[in-house]
Amino acid sequence: MNRQRLILSILLVALVAAVIWSFWATPRPKVAPPAKNAPGQRGAPARDASGRTAPAPALPSDSRIVRLDLLGRGQEVFKGYRRDIFRPIFVDELKIMQNKAAALKVVKPPPLPPLPPPPPPSRIVPTLTPAEERAQQNRRELARFIFKGFLSKDQQKTIFLSKDGAILLVKKGDIFERRYRAASISDQALTIQVTDTGEEIVIPLMENLSLKAVP
Hints:
The chain is α+β, with helices and mostly antiparallel strands. The chain has helices at residues 2-25, 68-71, 91-104, 130-142; strands spanning 146-153, 156-163, 166-171, 175-176, 180-185, 189-194, 200-204, 209-210. The chain has a domain at 136-210: SH3 type barrels, CATH 2.30.30.830. The protein is 26% helix and 20% strand.
């Protein structure tokens, strides 16, 4: 029993000591001295011995200090914001995009000169046999004669042929130009036989026209 009382007494004394220590350890608020100037007023600037105004002491840079001098300043009136509503919003962006597009623009090469027209196809001359070449030569020689007319006497016809200004009379069976024999003569045509080849050429008779064989 005495031991329990002793322990209880010790605890009670420790509690009282803790209360007293906490009371003395708690900070107490301090009263600030009265201000010389009224709130919102600035004090007279201090002057040095020469009479000049001494610079104001720098205020401590403490965020907890309230700057009462700033409250007395007048607030500036908001004059508004002026802006041209017709001006594009993204002027710089548009210029940049246009410059990039101009730089990336593909430069077309100059057009090539037109190609010259293709040459005309070469004329293919058919190869003639010797007999065909002689036949063409005979027709060219006969075309040099011009038929001027004919004369009928005793049922025999005589034709008048002109060559280089000379008149030649030809009857049936006559040989002229040493190679051509008049095989037959009618009112419409003259049949000529080539003596060295035996070829017969029929030529229609038309006055004042050359002797051209029927093709």
